Amino acid sequence: MRKLFVILFFIVVLGLAYFSGIINFSKPTVEYKGLNSIGSEGIVDIYVKDEKPGLKDVEIFLKQGNNVIKIYSKNLDGKKEEEIRLKVNPKSYGLFEGKAVLMVQAVDKSLLKNKTVLEREINIDLTPPVISILNYTQNMINGGTGFVFLQANEELKSVNVNVGDVNFKCLKINQTYVCPFSIPYHFESVKPIVLNASDYAGNTVNQGLKINVKWINYAKSILDIDDNFIQTKVKPLSDKDFNNPVDLFKYVNVEIRKRNEDLIHKKASECKNLKPTFEGEFTYLENSAKLGGFADYRKYRYNGQIIEGADAYHKGFDFASVKNADVKASNNGEVVFAGFLGIYGNSVIIDHGLCVYTLYSHLSQINVKEGQKVVKGQLIGKTGATGLAVGDHLHYGVLVNGIEVNPVEWFDIKWLNTRFYDVYKTVGGAR
Length: 431
Hints:
- Residues 313-407 form the M23ase beta-sheet core domain.
- The chain is mainly beta.
- Helix content is 15%, strand content 44%.
- Residues 8-21 have low confidence and may be disordered.
C-alpha cells in the first residue's frame, strides 16, 4: 500500500512538473527577421519565444572563419517572448567583408534546459553605395519644388532628400531615382539640403546639394471674425461645447485644422503611383480671380482684439469665379479622397504620381469618388462655401511628398519643362 502511495505521489509530482513546464521537452522558438546582409551599421532582428516554462537566456554570436564573437547576451528570467533589435558594426568586431554566420542560442527554464540554436548565413557588406547625381534643381524659392535625378551602382533600400529636419522620399522609376522635394514654406532661413542613400546592408552615403534660394517674404494678414461667422461657420465644425466664442474659434482653427491637415498629409505621403501621370502644365479654376495667396500667415481678430494662439498658414490659393462654378481636375490622376474634411469642407484629393497631389476644397458638390481615374479638365465638383469658408470659392493646393508647395510653379509649362519634363526624358526615367 505504501509502495503504491509513493508511486502515485511521484506520478502526481511528475504530472505537476510537466504541466507547469518544469519538465518540458519542447524547445524555444527562434526567428531571425533581419536582412541577409549586414553593413557597417547593420540591424539584426531576433524573436525568441517559449510558452512553458519560459525563457532562461538568449545569446547571439557572429562567426567568420575561426573567429567567434558573442555580440549579445541576456538573462530573460522566465519571459515568454522577447524581441531583440541590435545595431551591429562588424568592423568593431574585427570582421571583414564576405560570408559569415549569425548564430542565436535560446535556452528555456525547464530542468532539461531545452536549447534551440539557429544559424543563418549572412553576407557582411561594408562598402557604401555609389550614387551618381544626373541632374538636380539648383535654383529654387522657399515654398517651391525641386527635383533630384540619380542612379546607383546597386539596389537601394531607401533614398531621401533631407531639407533640415523634413524628409522627402525618392522614387525608383526604371533605373533612375527621382526625388521631388521642397524648401518648406514655413522655414525662416536656408537649412542644409542633403541627399541620403542606404543599401540593404545598412550602409549609407550622404551628399550635400548646393541650391541657390530666392527668399520670398510671403504675405501676413489679419482677418476679422464676428459672432455670425462663429455661430454659422465655426460652431458646426466643433465636436465640443464652449461658452467662450474665442475658445471655440481657437479649438476649431487649431485642433480641428490639425486633424484635417494630418489626414491631407497622410494621403499625400502614400505615393502609391510611382510614375507621373501628369502631362503639361496644371490648370486652375477657369475665369477666376485669385483671392488668397500661398503661405499667407494669418492672424485673427475678434471684437478688435487679436486672438492669441490661433494663427495659421494658408497653404494654397483661393480662386473665385461665379457661384457654383465648375471645378475640373488640373491634371491626370487618381482620386484618393472625396468627402467632407472639416474646415476644408467638401474636398477632393488627386494623386498625380511621383508623390504629387492636388487638393480642391470648400466644394458645394463632389462629382467623383475615391479610386476613380480622372483626366485633365474632367469635372470633379462645384465651387462652394463649405467648411470654414467665407463666400463661394475654391481652395486649391499642391502637395509634394506630403508638404504643401507653391502652386504657381505647376501652372508654368516653361518651369515644368526645364525642371522636370526635359530632364526626365533625357535621363531615361520615362523609358
